[in-house]
Amino acid sequence: MTLWLAKEAGIASLNHRLAEGSFMSRNYICSLGWVAAAGLLCAFFLAPEQSAACSCVCYFPTWGFVSGGGLIPSNSRGLLWWGEFEGATGTDQGLPVQIASASGELLPVEYELVSKNRGLWLFRPRDGFKIGKSYVFTTRQVCQKPIRLLLSNQLFGGIESERRVNVTVSDQAVVSPAGPVALKVSSPITHPLGIAAGVSCGVSVNAAQLPIEMVLPEAMRAFRDQLYFETIIDGTDHWSPSASICTPVLPGTSWQGEGVDLLFSICGDTPALAHEGLASGRHTVEMRASLPGTDVSAVTSKVEVELRCKEPDNLDNGGPAIRNVSLQAYCARRSFTGVRNLDSTGYGWRCIPGDANIDVNQACAEQYSSNFAAQLLSEPPGGPNDWRCRRR
What we know:
The protein is mainly beta. Helix content is 8%, strand content 36%. The chain has four helices and 25 strands.
């Protein structure tokens, strides 16, 4: 079953909070510097003949838009942008973002700092968004390629590519729900899992795993791509795993996507330079979705979960018959940097860059075994989080 891929996955960052201020802190996998450093460590400090060394395709000092396109709420404060920008440049021509009307007329641009130390900004027309109007946002994504020189940490130039996002302003605003929303917690399993690790980019570990998903209020679902998601475990937002050092994760998403996550606890010793995961035992977990630059947010109920290692599930003959699928891992195995969803449907997922097709059947077979096949839990084209792997 071949599929088109999902929301642009962005660059990773260390387990740090966003700067204190008006915006919620975000889950990051690694900082821009650490992505570069880890890739460079692998590329530069190992002998050239070591084929297992990690060498990332790109380091992104500027990723560009975090927010997706399509319909935006009437109370949007702008599109979230991630990259190197120092603020006031004097002219709109010097800004990293240009905004045009649907007819192509360039509009004056206004911007707002979200997190200086994380490079997160909001960009919008200076006169604000007008209900029913469409806008074209343009920026340039910068990819720097490491040079494989022994004992020489260098980044080679910058390859820029234009990125455009088209949005239309809805007459509906996003509002906070009256109370907590539901958090769906799947059945725990113990099974091999690929996680980021230095030197080799990633490593497979045996881990107790627990998929979770935030159930968005109906009024928020149409604006999912404009929301900023966080996973909060034991009262902190430091949860930030990745499938590979070279698989960037966009701010406001997890390594599994928007509003979904995978908790894990490693069974046995943690490999060198790998993400440690959660400690074995009980934890509290909740998820939050917010509209950047506003006080609008939804928070799930706080749920207590337990992660304990056991004998690995026999995926062919035992354990749950239906399991979550990681499209991010599928793309990472093929040297893509992430995933994105074109239209907020199950059929909308693609590997990026290049919007390559995804074979979900193959993703299930690689993650579990050839006895598992893809299943869409709802009527085609389905929702973006409706893919599962079912035992044949």
